[in-house]
Amino acid sequence: MRETSTTEADRVVFQIENNGVTQFQVYDSSADGSRWSFETEGPSFRINKNGTGGEEMIIRNRFDGTAGQATLTVNGSVSATNVTFTSSRATKTDLVDVDGAEVLRKLAAVPVHEWSFIDELNGRRHLGPVAEDFNAFQLGGDPRVISLVDASGVALAAIRELYQAVESKQAAIEVLAAENLALRERLERLEVALARLDG
User: Fold this and answer.
1) pTM over 0.90
2) What is the pLDDT of residues 178-187, one digit of tens each?
């Protein structure tokens, strides 16, 4: 398909339209070939490899048709050079300070396992909690998943609390060290004084 106009302009050069689910397929007819389907239904766009019994990738927009709040669901791993999260204060509401000690207490009670995904090839091993245990924080909307935004927030809150605890203990240690030094110097002076009396 080629647009041959010499005038540069935005154009629709390929469109598939149907009254209902609309789908097109890409098929490799060789012996080891596979068939992929691309389909749209309501607010969703799906990419499926036929025969897997699942959906490899889904892009969903909001069901009310307004902009924003789209979701991308991938049934498998995602590789990227970098992933950035929207985190500007301007995008958030109802900000509430957290009790770092309470976050640390909850985190200490969350089991951390080494495990493999049931459907993952090569038995690759991973490390981390399961969503049902992490749900002790009551974050996000689905108790079956762990949001990286929430996991990083919990980790940062716990690290901050540990840092403050270390700083507090370090300050106490420095006070004790100064007191110990003062006592040692006093003892040395007493020993000198006693030696003079004995002499």
Assistant:
1) no
2) 999 999 999 9
